[in-house]
Amino acid sequence: MAKQHPGPHVQAPTEHKGQRWWKVMCLTGVDYFSTLGYQPGIAALAAGLLSPIATIVLVAVTLLGALPVYRRVAQESPHGEGSIAMLERLLSFWKGKLFVLALLGFAATDFLITITLSAADATAHLVENPHLTSTLGGHQVLITLLLVALLGGVFLKGFSEAIGIAVGLVAVYLALNVVVVAVGLYHVISAPHVITDWSSALTAQHGNPILMVGVALVVFPKLALGLSGFETGVAVMPHIEGEEGDTEEKPAGRIKGARKLLTTSAVIMSVFLIATSFITTLLIPADEFKAGGQANGRALAFLAHQYLGGAFGSVYDLSTIVILWFAGASAMAGMLNLMPRYLPRYGMAPHWARAVRPMVLVLTMIAFLVTWLFDANVDAQGGAYATGVLVLITSAAIAVTIAAHKAGQRNWTIGFGVIALVFCYTTVVNVAERPDGVKIGGCFIAGIVLISLLSRLARAFELRVTSVELDEVAARFVRDTSHRTIRLIANEPNSRDLTEYRDKLHQIRADNGIPPEDDLVFVEVTVRDASDFEAELKVRGEVLHDRYRVLTLEHSSVPNALAAILLHVRDETGQQPHIYFEWTEGNPFAQFLRFFLFGQGEVAPVTREVLREAEPDRARRPRVHVG
Questions:
Q1: Rounded distance between C-alpha atoms, residue 226 and residue 57, angstroms
Q2: CA-CA distance, 301 to 316, in Å (whole number)?
Q3: Is-contact 294 288, C-beta < 8 A?
Q4: In what order do the strands lie in the sheet with 535-544?
Q5: How far apart, in Å, are the Cα atoms of 307 and each of 127, 185, 275, 304?
Q6: How far is the C-alpha of 207 from the C-alpha of 214, rounded, in Å?
Q7: Mean predicted lDDT score pLDDT of the chain
Q8: pLDDT 10s digits, 172-199
């Protein structure tokens, strides 16, 4: 596998000491904890009176399902690549690349909808503030677009993830939520009829407790937004400080810190989810949760204004707006880390995809489009967001199940397998009930695959070799030929017997008029995984049948490997090497497709084209001969 290129925001662990795990938790917490701004309202709309029970099911799945899965992901992928990298290692060739591209499509759905959903909910808190409703009412889409544009502007100027700011935001936001929850619970306890009325209505609507739990299990997928944050939790692992003795191969301290991060954030969120769903369901009239209602998308803010006054409510609105906006910033940083990590390495992105600013402009434009299509509506975007979250968690559950199976851990394999089935069910139900999420994910996948293939096609003739390394024998071959004309024969290895090399040598000499006294060295390329775009080139030298010198190479593309070794020999010796081919039989277009998909095909003209792009000066370009 080719060496991974980090995203533009990823800092190498050797460049900084990292931060304590609880500080980094706040960085991912601006995404995870900020869902409290809209999760209770979405839960009330989805489950109605069953919201508290359905939320308990969600918490059980969080603590017994998602948490163990991502603790294992942290162990298997401690450098922030997440479950996508785990699955990438398990699959090869084009099927692996296409599968990763599909997951990237859903990851894009998750992160982009995080940006637009968070901005839309921040707008809801702004517009629904009693002091601003008359002024800002009816301008939700415009305000949301302005927030998204502001986010893009920050990244265009240059954004560094300020963990200190995240710590302050999360501390203030959670403290305000503690106050709101405490006051809400006080009002519930001080008015016992509220619980009695809810219990009676619940019994009248659903009958016995077993039926309630059954309905809650059915409704649970609609609450999947409460599972967001786990993928971000492993993505920020490189920022966690390690322990003495940690190495990049075995960063035990970082893994331990990441597990503490995941566990602590999941427990905190679980407590808040249960408490907020309980008080909002019991204290807020059902109609207020619906579109146009004062609690739509801002249930806890509604309680803050109602029970703690306009001043406290406005402070709560402000903290929610800021943390939701910062959650969008975290998602944007995640996208800027994720896409450059994979697409350029696959050759499936233009050169500008490695640069931050062009990517920010593209992502901001897409966020504008999504905001406009969903009319900046929080409820409408819930399905798409949940789909992205669930697909990523399901893929993580499958990845850790396979990892446990390969490690021979039977009990863990069974446990993770059951969790994977639960998330598969949840994902299927969510897609069936809210297909808009998979439609958006499908659009992202189609766009990524199409642009990727077109980009790879446009970059087909690039010199796709990151480095060339010759072993001692190969280096000696090059030194021995450096004092005379360097002649190489491109040979497709078959049986590699004496007859093959003798006949090939005779044919090349006859076709090109090479004198018998001139030395020739065979060059053979074996294609391992043609779907890889860039790779190191390792060259081995060997003498076959006591007379034929052979340079053997392994790469994803025969023409690119040959071009790379020719340029390397030229640079090492100061001479222009000559390489000799035979014409390939067959349709030229079919041969090009063979090159594009399988790294072989019409080798001679493609090798020359790669050389022409890599070396514009014809006088310095290695010579290509075809007989």
A1: 11
A2: 7
A3: yes
A4: 465-470, 535-544, 548-555, 521-527, 487-490, 578-581, 623-626
A5: 19, 11, 16, 6
A6: 11
A7: 82
A8: 999 999 999 999 999 999 988 889 989 8
